[in-house]
């Protein structure tokens, strides 16, 4: 294992225990991976409960006070060990997984995990949930197990919250945060559902974009019309929708909704310099998806655009006749799905209202407009100047032998904003996945080094956060 500094004396036996119990840790992970905890499909509800019950039993065996919390969906796993002195840490992960479709593209049974080797000797685990998020969850649990086995106690107070509806945006966690927030009060949250910068460089994600999702429905004539009889005289909802969507951006890539950029900060030059120093290859980034030329706002790098700038994206358009052959109609309706990624202090409710006004102000007089909201959340920026962030960064650096990076993330993790808004908690987003782990896709995998290094990393991070 790479190490740039000798561990503290009380850390050495914990790390040694992890190294010696690798086979046991893999066996436990494989047992969890075999549960088919697909949260979106009601047919798998018994398997979701099986996974939750297994986690409760495993945490109880370590010494946690563990239980299930029932609600309007798959249960939460709640576990506490508050016997140690020092700060109170809340760890979050999720045990549910995405569906495995298309099954024919898998190179083996998605729920029969296997450890595979490459020609260079590196190994990886193939299974649904290996990276997202069961493998990541078990890195933290194994770190706690090693502390308990070695010292009989954890280095600080720890609560564990594992969700069964992260992949479906269910109700149980939100209901629990609203009704019983005191059970989750802590000093700092840890989330292991993110990635490293690359296979050898650990990272702490320090900013997440928020989001707003909307469906737009336009209607004009009371039925589909013959385009020969009515073409040119009747309002065409598809024309109206296309015109509105085309007005979303100007030629420089800026969003044209009035007031859209209120609350959007410029990234400090010190942070931009750190991002420029990362070994990011734009040609590789875009080439991996068959592209060459960056889009978006003029004057910003690809990392800035994906980590720190807001966006407006059209995710789908439909209307009229789209079947085989041709049907010359003016459709009665046209529809689109539009989403926004938010940064800084942009308010989701305000952005939603301004988008709706933008649409209504830019359609013709005969057009009726209806909207369907699909959720939203604010952006999150972590206080990297706080001592916990630097302590964790140094701990990761010691384990991996390369300086850990503070990075951004273009996606959204709603629980992080919920922790901040409902509990007042900052979150350390530390994960050990890689970009090529194929999460949500066939042949999902998790590098063995990600798993073993993740376990060891959490030992170091918990030690660094403790007195």
Overall 3D form: globular
Distance between the termini: 25 Å
Please compute the radius of gyration using only Cα atoms: 25 Å
Q: Low-confidence parts lasting 5 or more residues at pLDDT below 50? A: none
Q: Residue-averaged pLDDT, rounded? A: 95
Tell me what portion of residues adopts beta-strand conformation: 15-25%
Discrete helix count: 14
- Sketch the major β-sheet: 9 strands, mixed
State the share of residues found in helices, binned by percent.
25-40%
Quaternary status of these chains? single chain
Q: How would you describe what is shown here?
A:
The chain is of the alpha+beta class. The chain contains 14 helices and 18 strands. It has helices at residues 12-20, 22-33, 45-62, 134-151, 172-179, 227-230, 237-246, 269-277, 282-287, 302-307, 348-361, 387-400, 414-423, 448-465; strands spanning 65-71, 73-81, 88-94, 114-117, 123-126, 157-163, 188-191, 203-208, 210-219, 225-226, 311-319, 329-330, 333-342, 368-377, 380-381, 405-409, 427-430, 445-447. The strands form four sheets. Strands 1, 2, 3, 6, 7, 8, 15, 16 and 17 form a nine-stranded mixed β-sheet that branches. Strands 11-13-9-14 form a four-stranded antiparallel β-sheet, with helices on one face. A three-stranded antiparallel β-sheet has the order 4-5-18. A hairpin with a 5-residue loop joins β4 and β5 (123-126). The chain is globular, with a radius of gyration of 25 Å. The two termini are 25 Å apart.
